[in-house]
Design brief:
With 165 residues, the protein is of the alpha+beta class. The protein has one domain. A 3-stranded antiparallel β-sheet has the order 2-1-3. The chain is globular. The termini are far apart. 27% of the residues are buried.
Amino acid sequence: MANIIMGHRMNEQFRTFVEGLHPKFEKLMTMEPVVDGRLPKIMPGSGIYLFSEGDKHLYIGRTRNLRRRYSQHCRPSSKHNQAPFAFKLAKKALGIGKASYKPGEGSRIGLSENAEFALAFSQALARIRAMEFRFVEEADPTAQCLLEVYASVALMTPHNDFETS
């Protein structure tokens, strides 16, 4: 009987991860946001990040290199596979549903080669450059993943989905 009861208890390692989520989330939300790409000289390597427009929180991501990831999200020369948030914004602006992984006009590559989509993507990159950017350090990959999901759910970020193909 004890084994059955223990089987229903939360794993202690997982509980430790979960208990650390909200304090990190609070740190993220109380950070003075970066604006206009003015990243601090000293910043953590790994963590999660948040893009917002005023009080509208739009997208949460995670990375092993915050500085590089920020640059990829908003650099004018970024490609569709480097800037998934801009890709999502461009699709939404043009009323395009889910991109296909099959070759053709509806694929990610096909869309990126379309002049109208390329313009929408470029505009999305510029929009992201103007957004507020917050981040919090989290080096552990499992805790980072859980924190990304936690923040996305807590903030109801409209451009996050965890769907896989």
